[in-house]
Amino acid sequence: MSDFSIGVDLGGTNLRIAAVSSDGQLLEKITLSTKVALGPNHVITEMCDAIQRLSGKYEETGKFLGAGIGVPGIIDMQTGMLRKSANLPGFEDYPVRAEIERRLRARVVLENDANVAALGEQWLGAARGIANVAVVTLGTGIGGGIVIGGKIWHGMNGMAGEFGHVTVEPEGPPCGCGNRGCAERYASASAIVRMAQEAIASGEAPSFAQAASSDAEFGAKSIYNLAIQGDEPARRIFRTFGRYLGILLADLINVLNLDMYVLGGGVANAWDAYAPNMFEELRARSLVYAATAPPQEPVWGQPPSAVRAERSSAAAGSSTSPSLRTQTGARKTVITLALLGSDAGLYGAARAAVMVS
Ligand SMILES: [Zn+2]
Q: C or N terminus of the chain, fewer CB within 10 Å?
């Protein structure tokens, strides 16, 4: 007998539903497309049908403990409604949690997608066995989540962890949030594209203009490929990226003093291109980091897969990674890559469903 919960990742493009046992085994995963244009009622009906299919199937083997739903946007934790979501138009002011609870007659937890991704990495991923961790997701923008004592830190009303909008440059480029010089204007996929466009416009990067004309999907990944081939303008962009990511992390480390900071999202994989500058800023700007830095930072120049493999073997060996402590037993600040990819949110949502808040 293994009790289980259901995690849902309700994105603007994909709707993914997974049954996960309470000891962290994935029982089954369903992927549907999110038909946002048909309205929230249609999307919620499809989601509830899938949840009921899975819960019915696995109720023969264990008790269904509830469902956790990760959604992009700002959530009102009290009412279980989405206050604002760029990816789910039409969902604002729709009673998401109440509607799902009514249909399923089960406990439902609604969470921000970055928060559940952080909880997933803490439960089963890079920070397995570590109670206090922040996860910084580097994608189109920057998402974030803080887990303290194995629980999501929500702040007053669920808005904690907005790492992407921490100011890293007072007079920097304007951000959609109304501020200037936000971290996500420098350390995200869209920031890489912006810096590349600026370099093309100023005539500094003929290599970009050439690559852009022959590559219809010219974007952050193309700039990364140029950088690892030694293209100087591309390398400069990743130095800037690493520098501002380092400033952001230095601030987080000074304020939070957590055991681990996990970098996730697609652009995090460009580790070898940005990590040297990131660590340089950390050492220079955070007294807490300087006092707790591991004797050896993860080696740069290594492809991220190698860094990952090292982490997984460390995680598999014991519940606490050996790199968290030195031989004298002093605890160290670890910066590392996420392990679960886009499944982090599914696992975290399933976990959130069974946590007593
Ligand atoms: Zn901002």
A: N
